[in-house]
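Today's session is about reading a structure prediction critically. Students often jump straight to the picture, but the first step is always the sequence itself: look for stretches that repeat, for charged clusters, for runs of hydrophobic residues. Only then move on to the predicted structure, which in these notes is written as discrete structure tokens rather than atom positions. Here is the chain we will use throughout the hour.
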Amino acid sequence: MPRKPEKLKDRENFPFRLPGRQEFQVLELLWAHSPLTVTQVREQWPGTPRLAYTTVMTMLAQLFRKGLVDRSKRGKAYLYVSRVGREELLQAIAQKVLADFFRADPDRFQQALNGSPRPASASLEAAVDARPIVQAPAGRASRRSRPPAETPAPSPESILEDETYLL
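Below is the predicted structure for this chain, in token form.
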């Protein structure tokens, strides 16, 4: 019986929970321009349209709960600063991907990076092509039945030569 993959529990192995893709973008802004308020993060957000204030506020609150940022009150606003360094976070993400998707085997990960001689998609296509074509009963189309061959459209010259079109 094959071994189950060893999954890392965020709280057991890291002092923080890992961020999502957009949360990581917020952290990149904080690493570059810390400390920032919600408004400043929103103004510096890459791309358009600009995110809603409440969306940015929610992402920063989530990052605070995950232990990735600290916040301090300044007037009515919070100032956010990253608690985790970029390299530390990237290392944690790499360890989690390795554990969750490659059974904690760096060789399997390296093989995936280098590519394998026969990608999984090619074997899937070969399996689909090897399935027999099933003919549907008369009057019904099958999902695997082949469309009828198209007859070429008549050329303008052949139409002029054919007198049946003149009637």
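Discussion point for the tutorial: The domain at 18-84 is CATH 1.10.10.10 (Arc Repressor Mutant, subunit A).
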